[in-house]
Design goal:
Length: 124
């Protein structure tokens, strides 16, 4: 796709995130049915709450420029990726750990594509 404005990029990000959310919901339904692949892990709940608090309290001033929005977006993506990496290291089941790693790789690849596209927009 060819993007002419940053608003188109963010519109596409919303679409990507909605599609990703739908995938997570479908995956959750499948996983709920796979009792044989259950695993247990203990993870610091404070880290989970800090990430949720960060996301729920994201605020941009009405006068925020695209640079600021991108910085916040990248910080959010980095925090989610770090959280997934932390969870991955705590998972004992290798299949489950591989599944989480696939999610990390997907998010990382998507973020790189977005940043590459934004850099190309800056060049134009």
């Amino acid at each position: 796709m060819l993007y002419h404005q940053l608003s188109e990029v963010f519109g596409h990000l919303i679409t990507l995130n909605m599609a990703t959310l739908a995938f997570y919901e479908r995956a959750l339904e499948v996983i709920k049915q796979e009792r044989s692949r259950m695993f247990e892990m203990w993870f610091d709940g404070e880290i989970d709450l800090q990430l949720l608090d960060f996301i729920e309290n994201l605020v941009l001033e009405p006068s925020a420029k695209s640079d600021k929005i991108l910085i916040v977006l990248m910080e959010l993506n980095e925090k989610i990726e770090t959280w997934l990496k932390s969870i991955s290291s705590a998972i004992i089941n290798s299949d489950a750990r591989e599944y989480i790693q696939d999610l990390i790789n997907y998010l990382s690849q998507t973020n790189q594509q977005i940043m590459h596209g934004l850099q190309r927009m800056d060049d134009v």
